[in-house]
Amino acid sequence: MKTVLLVHAHPDPHSLTAQMVRAARAELRAQGHEVIQSDLYAMGWNAVYDEHDFPDRQDRERLSFVDESGHAFSTGTQPDDVRAEQAKLMAADAVVFQFPLWWFGMPAIMKGWIERVYAFGLAYGYQGAGNRHRYGEGGLAGKRALLSVTTGGPAADYGPRGINGQLDELLFPITHGVLFYPGMDVLPTYAVHGTSRIDAEGVERAKAGLAARMRTLFTDAPIPYRTQNGGDFPDRHVLADDVAPGVTGLRAHLR
Asked: Per the UniProt record, which EC number(s) apply here (predicted)?
């Protein structure tokens, strides 16, 4: 049995987002997995920092700790809501983020979850080593992550020559930055397009497709991003000249 955290963001409890979360939860439980959730709108999640989110350096060093898996991170003087979400994240073997694509990214409330939960020592500054452990290593290494995204526009808009840009490239700051940066194994995105005109049959297909992805959540091959410390970046900043010569941009990050 595994533990899966579902993080989702939509203000309408009857939305397609909510229906897909219920479908994912049912399938995961049918497989015998434990499911924990963060329904950000229902929780009234505070998406912005306040003074309690910034422990000073002395507090961070004094209050850092190591969990049962050997992960070292700091909760410091962070508020209870952040610490509760960090506990969920650290307990999870996989995290599924379900959200509608709003202005080419995740809803602000979900971005705020990332910014507040991804504290110093957990998602960056791992083991007090600055930027030594990132992109394939870090406090979230060993966990799997999946984005499940809905778009109002049709799939053609998000294709290789689509007017909105290719979906994988639009989501790169999330898949590569938010998820792979602290060490997670990132699975190919599950996307449902054309939701502004979706009918009942389309909703059922969307839910069935996500349920199918839940059945392979722990067996699907992750996106083959290049790790920082695997040898492709000898100075930890720029690809070696003999690695993917002539390839630039986002494609250069794929093995």
From this structure: 1.-.-.-, 1.6.99.-
